[in-house]
Amino acid sequence: MLVLTRRRGEVITIGHDIEVMVLEIKEDQVRLGVKAPKAIPVHRKEVYEAIEAENLRAAASLPDVAALRGLSRKDNYK
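Below the sequence we write its predicted structure tokens.
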């Protein structure tokens, strides 16, 4: 892990297109601003973990593909 010291207004760059700026320091909280391309999702860790857990639940409940192969498109239009 890289550990850096930054002051308000200072920026950390990640790669060529991600910037993390220290916006405010108040008591035991630090406000950060993250500037990244729209194609790169940026989440708080607890939100990211919740999304991962939901994706795993959804993947576990995928229908049985073998059972679906017997269905034809015309069955959907009856």
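The first strand starts at residue 11 and ends at 14.
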